[in-house]
């Protein structure tokens, strides 16, 4: 049966949908998008130009397509002519970019002259030998097939080709002949150095080096010593300047939780909600991102959004990047940078002595809901928060981690809001 126009486009759509579902392109279903009649703007026409089908593939965590395959579907009563390929090439030239890979697919076959013309114009020729159930039949032979190139050529140009030994899918890419959609994709990727690099990077296993808390603490403390002011406060913007990181502060609110967003490639940080989020929240967010750069995580990450609790929408370069380890390291490094162990301990002990706060067995400072302990909290903890420009919650976590203070569950302050 010969299908015309939209009917054949629908059959081709089903065919490519099955290829995607069965992962014949080497990408998961979630990484592929198949669209009918997708518009592309033509400068020559000064309006949109439409193509039968468009297949887009995506790398993990990426919003922009990795490759774009524009598919022309034809099911004539006779073989596709060179003029048809030339007309398709002319349409492609109007929107040509490095990512666009044109495919001309048919069930009838091509005139022999189409093979050279298509190869020289970077167009893939694709023939599906029709069968009653419109099935996908791929070659299953594992051993090397002799003269496979000649067999594929024959299938592409002979209308009556029916050697089912090799399946029913025959492809000529701009560089090779193949029976397999995945080889077609691989050929497209490896023929383009930029695509090849992105693909390899996306699949590269990234092992973030392990760093102990002690190592992170010492590194952060050294950075603090280098960039502290005469008043012993951290000059965080001096660090950012020397790292070449630009900071933009805006009143815009990304959403109610996102405090900051960083683009590691551009080395840009945007702080959101100037009049919504506190200085301490912005300060710690900057310290967190400095941690990523100082620890070398910018080699593995592209973008990240920072909330008050954790990081979200992290886009790594490799799908195997150890996100959890990098986030722990950056968070711990930031805590050690804004609240350096040695100097924090010195000021903490000094305040205890000034206010005659005695060690009562639990820790140097014990806080619960008793009035005397709440008073101690205001005498010791709040001045520390102001001096180091940190939130009460951040200080509480750091003092607890250093065994300098204990906070009883009955202490009912909602520290996260301060």
Assign a percent range to the helix content.
25-40%
Please tally the β strands and state the result: 14
Number of domains: 3
Q: Mind describing the biggest β-sheet?
A: 7 strands, mixed
- The ordered H/E elements are HEEEHEHEHEEHHHHEEEHEEHHEHHE
CATH architecture of the largest domain: 3-Layer(aba) Sandwich
Could you name the CATH topology of the largest domain?
Trna Endonuclease, Chain: A, domain 1
Instruction: Let me know the average pLDDT.
Output: 83
What is the 3D shape? Answer: elongated
Under the CATH scheme, which class of the largest domain? Alpha Beta
Strand order of the largest sheet: 1-2-3-4-5-6-7
Low-confidence stretches: 314-320, 414-418
* Estimated radius of gyration: 31 Å
Count every helix, treating DSSP H or I runs of 4 or more residues as helices: 13
Strand content: 15-25%
Distance between the termini: 73 Å
Structural class: alpha/beta
Domain Restriction endonuclease type IV Mrr: 68-127
Protein name: Restriction endonuclease
GO molecular function: DNA binding; endonuclease activity
Domain IrrE N-terminal-like: 277-399
């Amino acid at each position: 049966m010969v299908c015309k126009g939209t009917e054949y486009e629908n059959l081709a759509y089903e065919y490519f949908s099955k290829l995607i579902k069965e992962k014949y392109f080497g990408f998961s279903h979630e990484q592929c998008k198949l669209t009918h009649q997708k518009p592309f703007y033509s400068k020559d026409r000064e309006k949109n130009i439409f193509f039968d089908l468009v297949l887009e593939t995506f790398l993990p965590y990426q919003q922009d397509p990795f490759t774009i395959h524009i598919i022309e579907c034809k099911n004539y009563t006779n073989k596709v002519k060179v003029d048809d390929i030339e007309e398709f090439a002319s349409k492609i030239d109007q929107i040509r970019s490095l990512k666009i890979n044109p495919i001309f697919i048919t069930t009838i076959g091509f005139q022999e002259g189409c093979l050279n013309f298509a190869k020289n114009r970077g167009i893939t020729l694709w023939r599906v030998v029709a069968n009653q159930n419109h099935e996908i039949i791929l070659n299953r032979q594992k051993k090397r097939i002799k003269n496979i190139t000649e067999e594929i050529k024959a299938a592409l140009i002979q209308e009556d080709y029916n050697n089912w030994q090799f399946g029913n899918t025959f492809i000529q890419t701009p560089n090779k002949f193949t029976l397999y959609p995945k080889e077609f994709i691989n050929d497209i990727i490896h023929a383009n150095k930029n695509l090849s690099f992105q693909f390899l990077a996306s699949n590269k296993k990234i092992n973030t080096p392990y760093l102990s808390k002690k190592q992170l603490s010492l590194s952060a403390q050294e950075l603090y010593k280098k960039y502290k002011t005469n008043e012993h406060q951290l000059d965080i913007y001096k660090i950012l300047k020397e790292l070449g990181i630009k900071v933009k502060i805006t009143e815009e609110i990304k959403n109610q939780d996102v405090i900051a967003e960083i683009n590691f490639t551009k080395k840009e940080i945007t702080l959101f909600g100037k009049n919504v989020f506190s200085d301490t929240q912005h300060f710690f967010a900057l310290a967190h991102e400095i941690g990523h750069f100082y620890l070398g995580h910018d080699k593995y990450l592209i973008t990240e959004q920072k909330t008050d609790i954790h990081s979200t929408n992290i886009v790594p370069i490799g799908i195997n990047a150890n996100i959890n380890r990098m986030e722990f390291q950056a968070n711990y490094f930031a805590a050690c940078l804004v609240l350096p162990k040695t100097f924090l301990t010195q000021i903490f002990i000094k305040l205890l002595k000034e206010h005659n706060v005695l060690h009562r067995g639990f820790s140097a400072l014990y806080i619960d809901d008793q009035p005397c302990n709440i008073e101690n909290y205001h005498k010791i903890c709040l001045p520390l928060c102001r001096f180091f420009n940190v939130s009460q919650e951040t200080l509480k976590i750091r003092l607890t981690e250093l065994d300098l203070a204990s906070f009883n569950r009955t202490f009912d302050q909602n520290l996260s809001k301060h």
